[in-house]
Amino acid sequence: MIAQLTGLFVRGTENHLIINVQGVGYLVWATRPTIERAMVASGPLTLEILTLFKQDYIVLYGFDQEIDKNIFELLLNVQGVGGKMALALISSLGTTAILSAIQIQDHTPLTQASGVGPKLAQRITRELKDKVSKLSSLPIYTEVGSTDPKTAAYVDAQHALIALGYKSHQVNQILKKIADQNTDLTIDQVITLALKHLSQLG
After folding, report:
1. What is the pTM for the complete model shown?
2. Which residue range(s) make up the domain with 148?
3. Which of 1, 34, 92, 93 could form a disulfide with 30 if both were Cys (CB 3.0 to 4.6 A apart)?
């Protein structure tokens, strides 16, 4: 079973990429943020691989961040969620928004992903509520749905920025950076700092 691949990025599409490992090209399904980062990588790319066996072939799913792989595997536990849909969820919302939706039992954000209707979104939030608590490493805070005002400020800021059209993986990275460098910020202060960082990304 393939667990990890390190090689050079060859090309990518919206939902998969090809990585050249010692002259052998592997087609790996991946999230859009992973593919975008691979496209600008200046050297060898390392992907954690989840191998799924189909009836007649093998499918490789690749992740450059462990949290993405953890959430992907969790989503596969839900009936009706396959590999492509799990990737679509992570690509559309990002792991933090998915975890937040599950922890506060709000299925509505999940319906933003292609192919995810209200019934399936409700099933995801319901069935994974207890399982997400087992993850030891989350992008911002372990208790995303808690009443801690500091936590709530970051969650609300995240939802607001994604609603404004910013890419979820960029929002999550910037909010993590702000959280590491600042304490006791209001939602307005978090959004102001985040917008400043996002504007610098062009």
Report:
1. 0.66
2. 140-202
3. 34
